[in-house]
Specification:
The chain is of the alpha/beta class. It is built from ten helices and nine strands. It has two domains: about 140 residues, Aspartate/ornithine carbamoyltransferase (Rossmann fold), CATH 3.40.50; about 150 residues, Rossmann fold, CATH 3.40.50. The protein binds N-carbamoyl-L-aspartate (NCD).
Length: about 300
C-alpha cells in the first residue's frame, strides 16, 4: 500500500488478503468487545467528513481508539467549509497541525486522490462521490469470508443504483481480483454499460430475477437520491421492480447471504422481512467494519 488507502483498484490481491487476515485477528469473540491495543499510541487521526455518515465515521473512530490513537471528527457543516474555504485550504490548515493520517469522505469523485498528490499526510478514502469506498468493499469481503471458504466462483448479485454507487465500484474491483462472478442489476438509467468493462467477470441485467437466480450473495444498494440529477422513480414503482422480497430468495442458493452497506430504506430497495431475516448479514457487515478499519489504520501508520 502506498501512503494511504485511496481505492481497491490500486491494491493487489495479496495486499487485500493481508488486510482481511489482519482484520480477522481483531474480530472479537462472541460476547466480547474489540481488543484495546496501544499500537498507535501517540498518533492522531482526523476524520474529515464532507458528507453525512453514521456507520463509516463511527467505525473509523472506534477502530482508531481501539488501537490507542487520538481521533477527532470534523463535519463540513460545523467547519469553515461552510464559510467558503476551499478544500485545499481546509486540508492545508489541518495538515499544519500535524495529524498522522486523515480519513476523508467527499462528494467529489477523486477528491482524496487529488489531495494525496500534494500532501505528505496519508489519506484514507472513506467514500469519494460515485467512485470508490475501499473499506466498505474490504468489510464486505471479510463478512463473506467469515461464512464461505472463498470468494472464487461465488455468484454475487449487486442490485440497485449501480450508476451512483461507490460501494458497487469498489466491490467490483475487489471481487473480480478474487474470481467471483459478478452480476450488476438495476433499471437501465441506473446501470451504465461501461461498468461491465470495469473488470473481468462482470455481467449486466435489468431483470432482478436473473440476477438473483443461483446467487451466493445478494448485495442491495440504496438509491442515491442525493447524486441523481434525473427524474426519480417513485418509491413504490422502484420497489415493485427492484426491491428485494422474501419470495425472491427462493431463486437464490439456499444459504444465500443478503448484504447492504446501509443506510437501508425499508420498502424502497429491501423489504423489512428480508432485512431482518436469517439470511441477512447487514449487522455483521457493520461489526466487521471496525476490525477492517483497525487493520487498515494499523497498516498505514505502524512503523
Ligand atoms: C454507503 C456510502 O456512503 O457510500 N454507506 C456506507 O458507507 N455504509 C452507501 C450509501 O450511502 O448508500
Amino acid at each position: 500500500m502506498a501512503k494511504g488507502l485511496l481505492g481497491i483498484e490500486d491494491l493487489s490481491r495479496p495486499e487485500i488478503e493481508a488486510i482481511l487476515d489482519r482484520a480477522r485477528s481483531f474480530q472479537p469473540a462472541q460476547g466480547e468487545t474489540f481488543p484495546r491495543l496501544d499500537t498507535l499510541r501517540g498518533r492522531t487521526i482526523v476524520n474529515l467528513f464532507f458528507e453525512n455518515s453514521t456507520r463509516t465515521r463511527t467505525s473509523f473512530e472506534i477502530a482508531a481508539k481501539r488501537l490507542g490513537a487520538d481521533t477527532l471528527s470534523i463535519t463540513a457543516s460545523g467547519s469553515s467549509v461552510s464559510k467558503g474555504e476551499s478544500l485545499v485550504d481546509t486540508l492545508n490548515t489541518l495538515v499544519a497541525m500535524r495529524p498522522d493520517a486523515i480519513v476523508m469522505r467527499h462528494s467529489a469523485s477523486g477528491a482524496p486522490h487529488f489531495l494525496s498528490r500534494y500532501l505528505a499526510t496519508p489519506i484514507v478514502n472513506a467514500g469519494d462521490g460515485t467512485h470508490e469506498h475501499p473499506t466498505q468493499a474490504l468489510l464486505d469481503a471479510r463478512t463473506i469470508l467469515d461464512l464461505r471458504e472463498t470468494l472464487e466462483g461465488l455468484k454475487v448479485a449487486i442490485i440497485g443504483d449501480i450508476a451512483h454507487s461507490r460501494v458497487a465500484r469498489s466491490n467490483i474491483h475487489l471481487l473480480s481480483k478474487f474470481g467471483s462472478e459478478i452480476v450488476l442489476c438495476g433499471p437501465a438509467p441506473l446501470l451504465p454499460v461501461e461498468l461491465g468493462q470495469l473488470a473481468s467477470g462482470v455481467a449486466l441485467t435489468n431483470d432482478i430475477r436473473d440476477a438473483i437466480r443461483d446467487a451466493d450473495v445478494i448485495m442491495m444498494l440504496r438509491v442515491q437520491l442525493e447524486r441523481q440529477h434525473e427524474a426519480n422513480f417513485p418509491a413504490g414503482d422502484y420497489f415493485k421492480f427492484y426491491g428485494l422480497r422474501l419470495d425472491h430468495l427462493a431463486l437464490a442458493k439456499p444459504n444465500v447471504l443478503v448484504m447492504h452497506p446501509g443506510p437501508i430504506n425499508r420498502g424502497r430497495e429491501i423489504s423489512s422481512d428480508v432485512a431482518d431475516s436469517q439470511r441477512s448479514v447487514i449487522l455483521n457487515q457493520v461489526e466487521n467494519g471496525v476490525a477492517v478499519r483497525m487493520a487498515v489504520l494499523e497498516k498505514i501508520l505502524k512503523q
